[in-house]
Design brief:
Length: 294
């Protein structure tokens, strides 16, 4: 949000262009006046801060989802996968009871506090973060990426800068990055879920995303994925590091202390969750619905 407000991205992408490309079915989504658009992003910044602090969390998550999805739908030409991911994740956060501990809401309303969370809340977020990793690897399983190291050869000839990029600018560099990218995307989630490889995988993920942030201009994506990767650690890990909580997390507990978890899913909730997961698994194959080379 600050990148749009402070970095000039708002004006450059949505206020200055005289034509915006539209998603099919969303041609009616158009930018507001400059004053209205600036007010929107200021509101998004406030909502994001409220989500982080857990203050009126559900309302803040709902407003943030609506606002960021509106921005996402304004122009297909500015599509980035992490903007889509942020929209989806903010939608899920409306339903995930993330404000039950270490939040201003829990301080404001002690009855809301809970040291445990239902397993579906954690696994749903893990699933959503795993989708771009896994399908990113599947998308790379093609002749151009693996045999010709394209488009990585072009990207690295244009995008590598400074000491980070020089060693990889050699002829072998694009091939190393291409094959390494495939292996990383396909294996990182299983490695994070397996206890024996979790810490090395976490260190590898941090190194991978920090390297991407230096080599390429890809916005907030590396920092988003570094933070989201922490979801794959054992639940309760912040309290083992000394972050305040009522009790230390016993091994196997979801979020801190013993006791029944709150926020179980109803039957309609489980049905909705099943449909949502199915959509996320099927949408990456949408190109089979179109004729010709896509």
């Amino acid at each position: 949000v600050l990148e749009y407000l402070v970095g000039g991205r708002l004006s450059r992408q949505f206020l200055e262009p005289i034509f915006l490309f539209k998603y099919e079915g969303f041609g009616w989504v158009t930018p507001g006046s400059p004053a209205l658009m600036h007010a929107l992003f200021i509101g998004l910044a406030i909502a994001a801060a409220m989500i982080a602090c857990g203050l009126f969390y559900r309302w803040a998550a709902t407003l943030f989802f609506l606002g960021i999805t509106y921005v996402f739908l304004l122009d297909t030409a500015t599509f980035q996968n992490h903007l889509y991911l942020i929209s989806l994740t903010s939608f899920l956060m409306i339903f995930v009871p993330a404000e039950r501990a270490l939040s201003l809401d829990a301080r404001r309303r002690p009855a809301l506090r809970s040291d445990t969370l239902p397993a579906w809340a954690l696994w749903l977020l893990r699933f959503q973060i795993a989708v771009p990793y896994f399908y990113g690897g599947v998308a790379k399983l093609n002749y151009d990426w693996l045999v010709r190291a394209q488009p990585m050869t072009v990207w690295m000839s244009e995008g590598t800068e400074g000491s980070w990029g020089r060693p990889l600018s050699a002829s072998w560099g694009p091939y190393a990055v291409s094959w390494g990218g495939v292996m990383f995307d396909l294996l990182i989630v299983p490695a994070l879920l397996w206890r024996r490889t979790r810490i090395p995988a976490l260190l590898l993920a941090v190194t991978f995303h920090l390297t991407n942030s230096q080599l390429f201009t890809i916005g907030v994506f590396p920092w988003l994925m570094i933070a989201a990767t922490l979801l794959f650690l054992e639940p309760g890990w912040p309290r083992r590091l000394g972050i305040p909580g009522r009790r230390a997390a016993p091994r196997g507990a979801l979020a801190g202390a013993s006791g029944p978890p709150t926020g179980g899913l109803s039957r309609p909730g489980r049905a909705f969750l099943a449909v949502y997961v199915a959509v996320q698994l099927l949408v990456p194959f949408r190109h089979f619905l179109y004729r010709g080379h896509v």
